[in-house]
Design goal:
The chain is α/β, with parallel strands linked by helices. It has 15 helices and 22 strands. 37% of the residues lie in helices and 22% in strands. The site of NADP nicotinamide-adenine-dinucleotide phosphate (NAP) has 26 residues, from helix 7.
Length: 524
């Protein structure tokens, strides 16, 4: 059995007190344990601020980018091992594991490329000009310029269990490129992958001392030590998010907090979409992928499927046929398409959640029962509602292979918009239609409530990336229950870790020292 250690203050630390167990969700056997007890979190925060931060900020953007590239390669170097651990500790199929691990290395590499580009534009400069200079005085001599500078604090990253590699990789890529050291806390149930990745990062010796620390186990009193230049980026349930957002110390010191929480993502089938069309095929593929990839334990997975009432039977039949072909079982078997849920708690929560949906609708397939005697398995479950406004569908995230079909009246687009927005803020909506007027109307109606709109049509059916994919180029996050946070989006992802300020003074000084160098195109 593996005991996971934490990497703090440059040393590996095995917790002293009660260990938290880690399981193989396929067999339910305990395969590991971890504990963060005994960690001096005040010292860890100081180590990051006093040792890691200055060393990172001594590197220019190009050097930080080069470090990210090397980190990406170091993690890629243990890819096969991580895939195996992801199956054993997370119940991931090989495809699920690659989605997580390649997502991490891909995002690190994308920010490495941004660092390289910034290095070429900014040279030795370590700030990011924001927009163009403005004239403030009666002549151009007195002007102003906005810019972003690195904050001399630490970034604490609290990650969810479902993406142990990607969650850590995407957060640290942005912070490190911004010149801010990180303390990564893994979600405990699946911490084996994050721990192995942390070992590879620490062993590689790529980052300056203090730039990277890793916590396996609980967060202890870590958040009590954060101060105004620090930040917390959290990914997890809105329930935990609420607790962290209201943390008295974070409130007292106005510590920046970015929340990525849960989301009742919607897919909308437009009234014009014919069964058998390319757009319909795209919709089926995406919904089935979302429901079954990582056993539906994806923050971006579709939970609410809006279908014009006359099409409901066709859509349900097509989805049930595809879901029926998904082989559920041991994630290590080559023909398995969906593994178990990640933990016993997940199994209990998902079974209860499906049960609550079924109080209001009918199961077209699946249901709350366990699939096998052993392991945390449930079947892909599609629940068909008779009414589109059933409260529980819009209020409760069932974080597993489960979605509800909701019929809508295709003559009432305004009502459709209201229904989609009933999720009270989400990460992504996928909208399937070749009708530009319908697409525009719905898109503008739901845009303020969602972080990302994904438009599927015949024109992109052969090349669109799935809506469940979070890409480094575009932002991830959403308002309301999705947490109100924002990550990634190219250089926008650095803003959490940097301070935007305005500089005012003599135009020559302001523009030369703080503005965009001649020929630079990036900015923040
Ligand atoms: P969770 O139970 O809220 O836990 C998330 C993280 O918070 C874990 O690392 C957990 O540590 C930690 N945590 C819990 N209580 C804490 C406290 N009082 N102080 C400090 N840290 C604390 O969520 P989860 O079950 O891991 O993840 C599933 C949820 O995450 C789903 O709701 C999903 O929608 C959401 N999610 C959202 C996104 C997004 O980007 N929006 C991405 C992935 C997942 P322990 O594990 O040690 O308890």
């Amino acid at each position: 059995m593996q005991t996971l250690a934490s990497f703090v203050c440059g040393r590996w630390h095995e917790g002293a007190g009660d260990q938290q167990p880690l399981h193989d969700p396929t067999t339910e056997a305990q395969i590991g344990q971890c504990s963060s007890s005994g960690i001096d979190f005040a010292a860890a925060v100081r180590h990051a601020r006093e040792v890691g931060g200055p060393a990172l900020r001594a590197l220019d953007f190009a050097a930080r980018g080069a470090a990210l590239k090397a980190l990406s390669a170091a993690v890629h170097g243990i890819r096969d091992e991580l895939i195996e651990l992801s199956g054993r500790n997370g119940g991931s199929t090989r495809g699920d594991a690659k989605f997580d691990i390649d997502g991490a290395t891909g995002t690190l590499a994308a920010y490495a490329a941004l660092g390289d580009q910034l290095g070429k534009e900014m040279g030795a400069g370590r700030h990011l000009p924001d927009g163009d200079g403005v004239q403030l005085g009666r002549s151009p001599r007195f002007g102003g310029q906005h810019m972003w500078v690195s904050r001399p604090g630490v970034a604490v990253h609290v990650n969810a269990f479902n993406f142990p590699a990607w969650g850590m990789g995407e957060k640290m890529a942005c912070a490190l490129l911004a010149g801010v050291p990180v303390i990564e806390k893994a979600g405990t149930p699946s911490a084996l992958v994050a721990w192995r990745m942390a070992k590879a990062i620490a062993d590689a010796g790529i980052l300056p001392p203090g730039a990277f620390q890793f916590v396996a186990g609980g967060a202890g009193d870590l958040l009590d030590h954060l101060r105004p230049m620090d930040c917390l980026a959290f990914t997890g349930s809105s329930r935990t998010g609420l607790v962290l957002k209201g943390h008295p110390n974070l409130l007292e010191h106005n510590v920046r907090v970015n929340l990525e929480a849960d989301s009742l993502n919607a897919a909308v089938v437009g009234p014009d979409v014919e069964v058998g069309s390319d757009t319909f095929g795209l919709f089926l593929t995406n919904v089935v992928t979302d429901m079954t990839q990582k056993a539906g334990q994806k923050c971006t997975a579709v939970r609410r499927i809006f279908v014009p009432r006359p099409r409901v039977d066709d859509v349900v039949a097509a989805l049930v046929e595809r879901l029926g072909a998904i082989k559920v079982g041991d994630p290590a078997a080559a023909d398995t398409r969906m593994g178990p849920l990640a933990s016993a708690r997940q199994l209990a929560d998902v079974r209860a959640g499906i049960g609550r949906l079924l109080e209001h609708g009918k199961a077209a397939c699946g249901g709350p029962d366990k699939v096998f005697d052993r392991g945390y398995f449930v079947a892909p479950s599609l629940v068909v509602m008779d009414r589109p406004d059933v409260e529980v569908v819009h209020a409760e995230e069932v974080f597993g292979p489960c979605a509800s079909v909701l019929p809508y009246d295709d003559a009432d687009v305004e009502r459709l918009i209201e229904l989609v927005n009933l999720g009270r803020g989400g990460l992504v909506v996928s909208l399937y239609s070749n009708d530009r007027e319908f697409t525009e109307r719905v898109a503008f109606g739901i845009a303020p409530w969602h972080g990302r709109l994904w438009l599927g049509s015949d024109r992109v059916a052969d090349q669109a990336l799935a809506p469940g994919m979070v890409l480094p180029q575009t932002i991830h996050g959403g308002p309301g229950r999705a947490g109100g946070g924002e990550e990634l989006g190219g250089l926008r992802g650095l803003q959490l870790y940097m301070q935007r300020i305005a500089v005012q003074g003599f135009h020559g000084t302001v523009s030369k020292s703080f503005g965009r160098p001649q020929g630079a195109t990036s900015g923040a």
